[in-house]
Amino acid sequence: MNDGQRLLEVNNLRKHFPIQHGLLRREIGRIRAVDDVSFYIGESETLGLVGESGCGKTTTARCILRAVDPTSGEILFRSEDGSTVDVATAPRAQMRSLRHEMQMIFQDPFSSLNPRMTLMDIVGEPLVISGYPRSEREDRVAELLRVVGLRPEFMRRFPHAFSGGQRQRIGIARALALNPRLIVADEPVSALDVSVQAQVLNLMMDLQSELGLTYLFVAHDLSVVKHISDRIAVMYVGKLVEMAPTDALFATPRHPYTAALLSSVPDPDPRTVRERVVLQGEVANPANPPAGCYFNPRCEYATDICRSETPQLREIAPNHFAACHRADELALAGVV
Length: 336
What we know:
The protein is of the alpha/beta class.
């Protein structure tokens, strides 16, 4: 993919949170929540960002939208007018004008909606902030509710009157209010029942094809990510360890951590016998990570170089990147 087709490019992104101690709040260390992460997302593409809880997925997503300020790195976004903006360093005034192009769908549909606001107020709030004419606001909210599969007459109701799946549709309608180009979805179906998950995922895919949306889809459920993503990036303790097209990553993982994640994906056929990779030990402490590869204490393939040198994310096969010293020689089991 050439640079002209990239909507978002993240280069060497870092977000470190200070650890403070004592009455004077003296800094005694740092938590490396996101530690030198680089990836890109093409226009109208879905990139799935996966990993265990606490690996830095949500922090990465929030840095991209400047909900939190990154410590360092570049977040290059190609704006509507064709110019490229570094979101990481853009002044607040410029970020305000970018907000309509970048929106977020939150994880919990219950806590992300104000219980004291009607659907008209919730979905219409971005329109109010952007100066949308009052006379046109109700028609726009009605249109958005239809788009996500809800009846326009619901706009006078409050969130408590809706199920979890319906609430997430309301959240999606709010995210679409200003016609964004990039949507960051932070585990948007993890709080929903499985049957409702499928409905919301299919809705998101339909909206993508109709509106030309680009998604950064954050999740920990690989079967969900496989369903919706064009490419998948895998994170471990703040670092990107593998990135590849979805089919290639599932069939031929090149990092031992990815192979371990894939082995935990349930198979719908009960007759299928698959060897489960059980990782030993604990996840590395992001405030005090091990030397070399952060995964080396839990990796059965680790050698001396893994314990001393940090592997770089490099291209192992066309468009398939892995941060593993032994990626060229390992034959890891995938999932068909």
